[in-house]
Amino acid sequence: MIEEIKNSPELMLFGIPASPGIAHGPVFRFLHDEVKVATYEVDESDQAEEIKRFLEALEMTKAEIREIREDVAKNLGEKEAGIFDAHMLVLEDRALIEDVKKEIKESGENVEQCVQRVTGKYLAFFDQLEDKYLRERAVDLRDISRRLQRCLSGTTASGTAFLEVPKVLVSEDLTPSDTAALDRTKILGIATDLGGQTSHAVIMARASGVPAVVGLRGLTEKLKQGDELLIDGFEGVAIINPSETTLFRYGKVDVQRRKLTNLVEKESSLPAQTADGKDLLVWANADTPEEVEKSKSLGCEGVGLYRTESLFLRTNSLPSENEQYEEYTCMVKAASGLPLTIRTLDLGGDKLLDGLNQQEEANPFMGFRAIRYCLSNPSVFLNQLRAILRASAHGKVRIMLPMISGIGEVIRTKEFIAQAKQELDGRGEKYDPDVELGCMIETPAAVAICDLLAEESDFFSIGTNDLVQYLLAVDRINNEIAFLYEPHHPAVLRSLKQVAEVAKNKNIPVTLCGEIAGDPHFLPLLIGLGFDSFSASASMIAEMKFFARRFNQADVEEITKDAEAKVRPSEVKELIKNFYEARVSEASI
Ligand code: PEP
Ligand code: MG
After folding, report:
1. What is the mean pLDDT of the chain?
2. Distance 122 CA to ligand 1 centre (A)
3. What are phi and psi of 442, to 5 degrees?
4. Where would a tag sit more exposed on the chain, N or C end, judged by fewer CB atoms within 10 A?
């Protein structure tokens, strides 16, 4: 199933950075185990036996998945293990099971062939879907179907344990169970032709710290026997047969990076302050109690963004009020006294649930998304609001609204909150009557009317991921125009400054919670634009604090003045990058 590959001159390919780190080594080409599917006719009298074989294979497959799940939970954590819950749902899917049974009866053929045909039909359906997230889910079904065939034929999967030396794994695509079966001591890095940042295999590679680059179109075709590969998981680059000069350059980058990581770790418990003692408020973007715990250990102020759709997407369902209450309460308890900012459901765009009657939309990011979906689905919204309010009885909770574009949405939400409170009063349930309500500022409309929104809000949080896409009219998940997605754009900087000024005048706390809030390069510039509160994923907090201690107010003023004078995003990017690198390399000498 595995093929060695040979030498050719240096060739650089660009893909999507999926898991940070540099890896270099011989290529190990991973091909999925395609099980040969036998075809033969089965007498009507033997069909019951075929169905029994099918049901037994289903049970065996479930047992395998359960084992992998346990293993992943132990080694990587509960969140990553949750990926395999989706596999269990496929195996328990009544429609799929009934379709296979029907196929056995109607075709008069063996179970292997019937499973192949039915899963093939499902896969053809997934493959023609436009939605990237759902197309990526086809990988799960392909994985299950292969596993099921292996159980039917009694063969086992090949892994990586036999590799004598560690190698860089290359594949067209990887399934979550491929990734789980990899011996991480033998895999230096992962490079795939396909895949996006939301694919489950990527999430697992990231969690286990294996560098990865995906979306390297044509990589597998270009590789030959004996080739070596270098991958740069920071920038999303793969280099086939890197030259000595390239290796030297990347070797230096890698050594510097490791050195920096060690230094950052050593200072991780120090407070979030600039060199001249200006205090910064660092919050966490966290979706699990483990992430909350980790952020607390790094001294954060609380959770600035809890994306509740993570629960809905993980279970691929609309969870009941009680299920939500339990999940939110676990998060509140993990925050233990620190505020937990619970963002109401942000479904839509690229985050869709099966069977939710979400219509196919020409422009999903500009469509039926987030607060718009909630306000049009009162029972879904009220369920969530009651669950959040009940959780507020256990600690400090704040409610945050995504994708606000008009004041009416905030006012209507307040009416929903009042109704939810009334219903809880009727049931005698406890909640915090003063729970705060905040708006995400992530549409150009919200920027323009932030003075009005301030009158109806207790706090603001700027979602730069969306704000950049809406301001620049650049779909944030479209690969073809990814180069136009520029958070350094003067339009973005001016909008951020405008919100910071209004928030200051209106005396309303404002935090930044998009990806740039956790990107240390941006920190001095964002401070200069008027911010002192940042919400970032736990993995970035220590590095942000480390960098903050390497500059002072005079640096902030200078870099902001220079950045505001630039007319091109690339110039701003270079300016903040050079400043970051200069200060960090001074610190690492
Ligand atoms: C944002 O848009 O910046 C944000 C934090 O929300 P999300 O990435 O979930 O849309
Ligand atoms: Mg957003």
Report:
1. 87
2. 32
3. -145, 10
4. C
C-alpha triplet 558, 564, 570: angle, nearest 5°: 105
- What is the number of the ligand closest to the CA of 468? 1
What tokens appear for 443 in the block? 């549409």
Query: pTM here?
Result: 0.69
Domain ranges in the chain with CATH number 1.10.274.10: 44-153
Distance of alpha carbon 354 from alpha carbon 317, whole angstroms: 8
The CATH number given to 2-30+160-262 is 3.50.30.10
Atom 3, ligand 1: residue with shortest CA distance: 463
Q: Among 465, 510, 512, 526, which residue has the most ligand 1 atoms within 8 Å of its CB, making it the best to mutate?
A: 465
Residue nearest to atom 4 of ligand 1 (CA): 463
The token duo for 322 is 């009680």
Alpha helices in 428-484 (DSSP H): 444-448, 450-456, 464-472
By residue count, the chain amounts to 589
Dist. CA 100 → ligand 1 center (Å): 41
Alpha helices in 20-159 (DSSP H): 47-75, 78-81, 83-91, 94-107, 111-127, 132-153
Using a pLDDT cut of 90, give the percent of the chain over it. 52
Ligand 2 centroid to residue 464 C-alpha, Å: 7
| Arithmetic mean of pLDDT, 516-538 | 95
Residue 285 Cα: closest atom of ligand 1: 5
Please confirm, yes or no, whether 200 is among the known catalytic residues.
yes
Q: Rounded to the nearest 5°, which phi and psi values hold at 216?
A: -90, 75
- Amino acid type, 45: S
Query: Using CA positions, which residue lies closest to atom 8 of ligand 1?
Result: 465
pLDDT at 135: 67
Q: What is the pLDDT of residues 374-384, one digit of tens each?
A: 999 999 999 99
CATH topology of domain 44-153: Enzyme I; Chain A, domain 2 (1.10.274)
Q: Other C-beta atoms within 10 Å of 547: how many?
A: 21
Which atom of ligand 1 is nearest the CA belonging to 402?
Answer: 6
- Locate CATH 3.20.20.60 in the chain: 280-588
Decide if pLDDT at 33 tops 70. no
- What is the rounded distance in angstroms from the CA atom of residue 469 to the CA atom of residue 471? 6
Catalytic residue among 200, 394, 488, 521: 200
Q: At 253, is the pLDDT very low, low, confident or very high (cuts 50, 70, 90)?
A: confident
Give yes or no for residue 6 having a pLDDT over 50. Answer: no
pLDDT at 454: 98
Taking CB atoms and a 6 Å cutoff, what residues make up the pocket around ligand 1? 305, 307, 346, 442, 463-466, 513-514
Residue nearest to atom 6 of ligand 1 (CA): 463
Ligand 1 pocket, mutate which of 133, 197, 306, 307 (most atoms under 8 A from CB): 307
Helices (H), 267-369: 289-297, 309-315, 321-335
Task: Identify the band that residue 525 occupies on the pLDDT scale cut at 50, 70 and 90.
Answer: very high
Q: Read off the pLDDT of residues 470-502 as tens digits, 9 standing for 90 and up.
A: 999 988 766 567 778 899 999 999 999 999 999
Which residue's C-alpha comes closest to atom 9 of ligand 1? Answer: 307
Q: Is residue 83 over pLDDT 90?
A: no
Q: How far is it, in rounded angstroms, from Cα 124 to Cα 141? A: 11
- Give ranges for CATH 3.50.30.10 in the chain: 2-30+160-262
Q: Is 24 a catalytic residue?
A: no
280-588 fold: TIM Barrel (3.20.20)
